[in-house]
Design brief:
Layout lengths: L2 E3 L6 E5 L12 E5 L11 E11 L16 E13 L8 E2 L16 E2 L11 H7 L4 E11 L7 E4 L24 E6 L12 E12 L5 E5 L4 E3 L16 E11 L5 H14 L5 E7 L14 H13 L6 E3 L17 E6 L5 E2 L16 E4 L2 E4 L4 E2 L14 E7 L2 E9 L13 E2 L6 H21 L4 E7 L7 H8 L10 E3 L12 E3 L2 E3 L2 E6 L5 E5 L16 E5 L2
Parallel strand pairs: 3-5, 6-8, 10-12, 14-15, 23-25
Antiparallel strand pairs: 1-2, 2-3, 4-5, 7-24, 8-9, 8-11, 9-10, 11-12, 11-13, 14-31, 15-17, 16-17, 18-22, 19-20, 21-22, 22-23, 25-29, 26-29, 27-28, 30-31
Helix pairs in contact: 2-3, 4-5
């Protein structure tokens, strides 16, 4: 017996054959499921009886056929006896920079990898399947994904692979999950609370397992000592005079019931790290009673609590504009009625209100009009085509017309359809199907066409598109938003500012140890002068107030 898991819902232990065979495709280890805390100890030689089965995490009944997770081979123990104790443990497989294949997964055209022969040299998924349940070791390994509340974090076995400028590991293309990235979970249930760039010094050792949420990991029976490398939050440079600063910030299901500490931390980040932007598009603002599903849609209490916290942190008195969604129609946490909200500093910028106050703006879309030869909005704030099917169960873009130093600036705040329902990057179907991408592509086209209506009146109009677009800088949705075509062959009308940064700085989010782009700021060609910054304050840190990092652009309209 090589290791025990005595906590959580999957209690048991790992056993490994001390006399391995010569077949590199077959593992010498296996997990023994006991349901209760095991009574054996590492070093015991055990005789186990039970049923060998393939367990699919988060799957039951008919969903086993469709779950995207890989299976875990395990013995459902019916009896066990200890033959001897104090035996030496099998030597672990040392995972170095060249141990794991360069490809994370093979391209099977969406096919099931479990239907193919295990080829340990083909991909990381094959390799880990071939040693599932066996002891491995990584030495002096860098953290690329911070600890979560369950004590789960990610390291890299390939320290030079796709390195971000702050020590993470980057997603550089579709289906290009870095093969060195690997989850580590202490088998004893402890939480080391590490952030990106920290190092587990010495040896981290334990059996290879597969997570109930998908993905291989080391069930660490020995965890290296934590070397805290003190990753510092980014602090944005304040804009020069006569420049307008516009930010986007996903505040992760913000509700009045959240602890005051969340509002205080968000406010401090806005004031200190974002340098008090003139306009902020805030995503995931919930209604006044949060996830309670009782028909409440107003969010004035949520907004007031946030703006008051900003003032208390030394920031400006932000005013706000938003449109309440139709109850339970915009996705997100059930009952939460998340929406996008404009906060703006009225001492610096003017919001141009337009349209009758009696119009139901939740379901009536704003139109682009011409006023004195210049583009204007029939409704400001307004929504873009809110009854279009592309916005079903998703947030509708919020459009506002602002005036700064006598110049009109149109800001579109977004929270596109999430990737929920997509197959797992760590799963059996490769490459994974991204069913949500179709809806985001449709959303991008509707918004692209709306922007073109503004530019048809004034080709130099200042339009700033911001928000959580839930897609990568190289995705079809972003190409459609910029050019109207998924392959980028159309005429570009927007510049995605994340692509103007050096490659090792192009990320806003850390998903399961992969630094990637979900949040964007795009600008029209008429904006010639800008300074753009991604402000890393959350995604790389164990103690985060949101799972997204904000960003800000300073422009001269």
């Amino acid at each position: 017996m090589t290791g025990v898991r005595a906590t959580g819902s999957s209690k048991g232990y790992w056993i490994q054959d001390p006399s391995p065979d010569s077949d590199p495709a077959t593992s010498e280890g296996i997990f023994v499921f006991t349901s209760s805390a095991p009574t054996v100890a590492p070093g015991d030689s055990v005789l186990v009886s039970g049923k060998v089965q393939e367990f699919y995490p988060l799957a039951s009944g008919d969903t086993v056929a469709t779950t995207s997770n890989l299976s875990i081979t395990e013995i459902d123990q019916t009896s066990a006896s200890v033959v001897s104790s104090g035996n030496p443990l099998p030597a672990p497989i040392v995972l170095g920079p060249d141990t794991v294949p360069g490809a994370y997964a093979p391209d099977l055209g969406g096919g099931n990898i479990e239907s193919t022969a295990i080829q340990p040299a083909r991909s990381a998924l094959d390799f880990y399947e071939s040693i599932e349940g066996m002891r491995v070791e990584v030495d002096n390994t860098r953290v690329v994904g911070p600890s979560d509340s369950f004590g789960e974090q990610y390291i890299t076995t390939k320290p030079d692979q796709d390195v971000s400028y702050r020590g993470g590991t980057l997603l550089t293309a579709e289906n290009a999950t870095p093969s060195g990235r690997l989850e580590v979970v202490p088998a004893n249930g402890s939480n080391p609370e590490v952030s990106v760039g920290d190092v587990f010094t010495g040896a981290t050792i334990g059996p290879i397992d597969y997570s109930q949420f998908g993905g291989y990991f080391i069930a660490a029976t020995t965890l290296g000592a934590v070397q805290d490398n003190h990753l510092a939050p980014v602090v944005a440079t304040a804009p020069p005079k006569k420049q307008l600063s516009i930010a986007t910030y996903n505040v992760e299901n913000l509700a009045p019931s959240n602890p005051d500490s969340k509002f205080q931390a968000l406010a401090q980040g806005i004031v200190t790290n974002l340098a008090s932007p003139d306009i902020i598009a805030v995503e995931e603002v919930q209604d006044n009673d949060g996830a309670t599903d009782d028909g409440v849609v107003a969010a004035d209490q949520t907004i007031s609590k946030l703006t008051a916290a900003v003032v208390a942190a030394g920031g400006p008195h932000y005013d706000s504009r938003e449109i309440d969604p139709v109850n339970d129609q915009d996705g997100g946490q059930p009952g939460g009625n998340i929406r996008v909200v404009f906060l703006y500093n009225p001492a610096v910028v003017t919001f141009v209100d337009a349209g009758s106050p009696t119009v139901n703006r939740s379901t009536t879309g704003t139109q682009v009009t011409k006023k004195k030869g210049e583009p204007a909005l029939s409704l400001s704030p307004g929504r873009i085509d809110p009854t279009n099917a592309v916005w079903n169960a998703s947030r509708k873009p919020l459009v506002g017309q602002f005036e700064f130093n006598g110049q009109d600036v149109f800001v579109i705040a977004n929270h596109f359809d999430a990737k929920l329902g997509d197959q797992s990057q760590d799963g059996r179907f490769q490459f994974p199907a991204q069913s949500s991408a179709v809806q985001r592509a449709g959303q991008a086209l509707v918004e692209h066409n709306f922007i073109n209506q503004i530019l048809a009146i004034d080709k130099k109009a200042d339009v700033v598109v911001v928000g959580d677009l839930n897609d990568y800088q190289f995705s079809p949705a972003l190409s459609i938003l910029k050019t109207g075509t998924s392959d980028g062959s159309g005429k570009p009308t927007l510049t995605d500012l994340i692509t103007t940064l050096p490659a090792n700085q192009q990320y806003t989010y850390d998903f399961d140890g992969v630094s990637e782009v979900l949040d964007h700021i795009l600008i029209t060609k008429g904006i010639g002068t800008f300074t753009y910054q991604v402000v890393h304050v959350n995604a790389e840190f164990a103690n985060q107030v949101s799972d997204h990092d904000p960003q800000v652009v300073d422009i001269k309209p």
